[in-house]
Amino acid sequence: MITTDKKIELLAPAKNKECAFAAINAGADAVYLGAESFGARKKAGNSIEDIKEIVEYAHKFLVKIYVTVNTIIFDNELDDVEKLIWQLYEIGVDAVIFQDFSFFEMNLPPIALHASTQCNNDSLDKIKFLKQLNVERVVLPREFSLKEIKNVTENVDIETEVFIHGALCVSYSGQCYFSNYIGGRSANRGECAQPCRRKYSLVDDKGNVLLEKQYLLSMKDNNLSAHLKELICAGVTSLKIEGRLKDKEYVTNVVSYYRQAIDSISKTLKASEGEIITSFVPNPDKTFNRGYTNFYFDGKRKKFINPLTPKFMGEKIGTVKFVKGKSVVIDSKHNLNPGDRLAYFDRNSDLTGTTVKTVNKTAIEVLDASSIKQGTVLYRNYDSLFYKSLNSAEFKRKIPVKIFADNKKIVIKSFDNNQISYEYKEDFETANNIEKAKDTIAKQLAKLGDTEFFAKETVIDEAFNLFIPVSKLNEIRREAVKQLVLKSKENYKFQRRDTKIEYKDYPIKSLDYSFNISNTKAKDFYEKCGCNIKQLGKQWAPEHTECSNITLMKTKHCLRDFAGICLKKSKDTRKLFLIDEYGKKYPLNFDCKKCIMKIEITDI
Questions:
Q1: Where does the Peptidase U32 collagenase domain start and stop, copy by copy (predicted)?
Q2: Mind listing the domains of the chain with CATH numbers?
């Protein structure tokens, strides 16, 4: 039983305009996307023109649009960032998601600011500090347990955003320098090369191999669908789906699933308007995922990774009984169809795949069976029938309106009491057939067709007796809809930020490279807040010999625990290292009190 009156936002990702529209039509209450630059997903940028079009469509349904400007910024970019934020404000974007604290030294419009998870919002004191800066919302770390989430919602009057689905970074956000170190592509600049999705071996200080050539840092995907009630009752503002690089099909499927899941808890929780009309049945298991985990939600350590592959395996279909040429016989209870794609591990333990060409009663024929053997376990990672259903499904988002007519006026009323009243200027004759006249006016006014409205209720006054020509009714309806759209736009409520701030003491006094201070404005801001800056942020790369004291990554994922030698349970104190596919060795350090593993840089 949900007792909160608070609206719960379902926040969806979009890499482009197509995905944004799909997310809105599938039931998102808000959408986040990147501009052409300065977003933490460099490949997911959008022009100002496209963002404006998305905003205009979204606001019809009270859906909010947030734009990510959440990279670290260099001095030569400060003016461009300031200009970009003004442009976003002027086209009606609801909020900007930021990482760099130079924002508080810029001349910015009063647009709402959301503190990205890249800000490393990992303590109550940091979040209270953000509140003092008039930050509207904080994106909480993926590592937070429910208990830690509640600690924020109960102690700081600030909106909270929690990731509920999608890819997990193995590192604390904003604290990963691995990608930049190995190849000059910074995660904090939106260019992560994902070294966490590569193979590594775990060895000890004597060269003994504990785990060989596995994906030891490749996290499963986040899935908190079983914990939505707990999050809602905890006072969370926004439930966020990760995936700004995902395609339209993924966005539609996952957003539909969570829209239905939230509505099944309570239909009064929805933070936007418009009913979703579709016959599509979503299933997140059918689109890309790496297997699921609820990560640290319950505060318990578990197996967070899939060491076998970082790819999408799909559902297990069965085991191969017999292979002849391209014909394969499977011990399976699943129905396969032409176009299905099958995944399996080859003799080198690499995930590979093939496509089903034909299906008969006893066997299937595949495109390539050269590496399929008797005993091979097959998985389906593309269900052709599901995708056919998904791609052919129609999604309509319609705002219910109430229509009323009597002998003086016609009234059309939508959400938030937006209402248009048309008073007759003409002297209409009395109808010869009053019942037919009532039926005609009801039918014609309800013909809202391709508009964003549908007639939920039509009431014709009992005393109505006028003959109004169909052409006139159509004219009135079109004009009323036009005016209703304009009125909704005029009445749209923006959250506005007070740009005047007081420089309060930052909760940490001594700041190193991990605070990613990369421009003079950010430096000035922290110094005004009483900080001593020991190190500026740097773009770490192999040629930087001063990197030897840098932690490349800190993570809740512990390889000691994964290997069965957790120091809380074992006396095995040998030093451990990761070795990548090129032979590069990385020392591992363990903070057992905080259950954090650190990947360090070896001597260069």
A1: 378-484
A2: 9-168+220-272+281-293 (3.20.20.380), 315-392 (2.40.30), 400-490 (no CATH), 510-600 (no CATH)
CB 409 within 8 A of CB 385: no
d(CA 155, CA 228) in angstroms, rounded, equals 21
User: Torsions phi, psi of 411, nearest 5?
Assistant: -120, 130
Q: Rounded to 10 degrees, what is the CA torsion of 283, 289, 290, 292? A: -50
Quote the tokens at residue 122. Answer: 């990992």
Q: Which residues contact 22 (CB under 8 A, 6 or more apart)?
A: 14, 248, 251, 252, 255, 395
Q: Identify which of 297, 34, 31 has the alpha carbon closest to the alpha carbon of residue 142.
A: 297
| Sign, CA torsion 160/133/192/32 | positive
For residues 421-445, average pLDDT:
96
Tokens 């030891």, located at residue: 216
CB atoms within 10 A of CB 204: 15
pLDDT tens column, 475-516: 999 999 999 999 999 999 999 999 999 999 999 999 999 999
Letter for the amino acid at 548? S
| φ/ψ (deg, to 5) at 566 | -55, 130
Long-range contact pairs involving 387-393 (C-beta distance under 8 Å, separation at least 24): 387/249, 387/286, 389/280, 389/281, 390/249, 390/252, 390/253, 390/280, 391/249, 393/252, 393/278, 393/279, 393/280
32 pLDDT more than 50: yes
Q: How far apart, in whole angstroms, are the C-alpha atoms of residue 119 and residue 138?
A: 9
Q: How confident is the model at residue 122 (pLDDT cuts 50, 70, 90)?
A: very high
Which residues lie closer than 8 Å to 469 by C-beta, 6 or more apart? none
3-state secondary structure of 311: coil
Following CA atoms 369, 373, 378, 380 in sequence, which dihedral angle do they give, to the nearest 10 degrees? 0
What Å distances lie between residue 363 and 325, 327, 330, 359, 366, CA to CA? 12, 6, 7, 6, 10
Can you give the pLDDT at residue 20? Answer: 98
pLDDT in tens, 531-569: 999 999 865 444 444 555 789 999 999 999 999 999 988
Instruction: Give the count of alpha carbons within 13 A of 204, CB side only.
Output: 11
Q: Which residue's structure tokens are 């509505």?
A: 263
How far apart are alpha carbons 503 and 524 in whole angstroms? 11
